[in-house]
Amino acid sequence: MHIKDPNNAQHSIQHLRVAMVDMNTQFSTPAAAKKMMNDAVSNEQPQINEGNRANVISVGDYDLQLSGLF
Fold it and tell me: Which residue has the higher pLDDT, 70 or 16?
């Protein structure tokens, strides 16, 4: 997808996902809603292995080394 910012510069967006959700849907319990949210976040997190390069997240010029799972 391509978008333009207020300065009319074009930017490319890759791997964009859009989820349409009915905001009027009621969950059966707050615990069920919390479990669904935790599952959704957990599924999107990278797997981290201690002592491996997989526990380092690089963003630009910065490396963030994670010491464990939260």
Answer: 16
